[in-house]
Amino acid sequence: MLPGVDKFFPNRKADPESCKLDKIPDVLIRPDLPDYPKRILVIRSGPGSLDYRNFIRRTWKNQVDKLVPVVFVCATSKNDTLKIEANKYRDILQFDFEDSYHNLSWKMMAIYGFVIDQLPSVDQIVVTNDDTIVNATALEQVLHMKKGPVMLGKVSRGYPRIFLPWLTWHVPSEMYPNLCYPLFVQGSSFVLSKEGAKLLVENVCKVPMVHLDDVFMGVLSNCVGLGLIHNEGFDKHIFDDFVVYHYQYSRHSAKYLESLWQNSEMSL
């Protein structure tokens, strides 16, 4: 067991034998990528979220692609049409497991494992959701972060565990007994070094699972010594001076996000 795990899970133990988070799932669709990329930007997207992917393709993807290749990452759902879409755009990575909210941690670890195994030239992984807007100019400035196992993004401090069972972010005390979570980076957008990704993959099965992927990564980061670097420009819900815009209180429609982009006087 990792040092410090007991303070988060006094009544739970990890089960490495049944854990699959450190294994790379089968890859169903691969994107076209440049030779030897130094960085990659992955966008977590559901198979049915074509409207969000097309909004991004019409707006900020073209600018960010000049800096870092952009890839949409999906798992599977019944009757998805991702193969047709992938043949047209060549920018989709699809893993063979069910795409769901409770499988977000699996999707994240699958991304890290894929990059480590298949893209050895990549030093940094930029992660966003598909309901975001990325400022390419601001992103370029933050990519020059210090070396080593680090994650850069919006660091949440003293975030309380949600007690109300009807809310999406509810975590029962049986899963996580403490009143507050340790430091964690908001999952909507962040930059992770390859050293950090390796540290997470190597140790993810040594910690009991929490279904909230960013909280789970926060607990794991605390136990393995992954450095968390705060930057106010990430997960910013005001359309001003941002690296990644994301409205955290509800999911903006793709149409509304595109209107924000089109009506902005900023040069992104």
Automatic annotation (TrEMBL):
Signal peptide: none annotated. Its EC number is 2.4.1.-. Keywords: Glycosyltransferase, Golgi apparatus, Membrane, Signal-anchor, Transferase, Transmembrane, Transmembrane helix. Pfam families: Galactosyl_T. One of its GO terms (cellular component) is Golgi membrane. GO terms for molecular function: hexosyltransferase activity. It comes from the Eukaryota. It is found in: Golgi apparatus membrane. It is a single-pass type II membrane protein. Belongs to the glycosyltransferase 31 family. This is Hexosyltransferase.
